[in-house]
Write a structure and sequence with these properties.
The protein is an all-alpha fold. It has 2 helices and no strands. The protein starts with a helix and ends with a helix.
């Protein structure tokens, strides 16, 4: 798990996780909540 490849995978998981958090922050404070609800409906 902590081989060179394993560390690369963990790094990518963290990057994806951070991007998802940033996007959710932007949606939450940027009025994106209404956008999501209109698409869902």
């Amino acid at each position: 798990m902590f081989s060179k490849r394993g560390k690369g995978v963990i790094k990518w998981i963290w990057i994806v996780f951070a991007v998802l958090i940033i996007l959710s922050m932007i949606f939450a404070y940027g009025g994106g909540v209404e956008l999501v609800t209109t698409v869902a409906n």
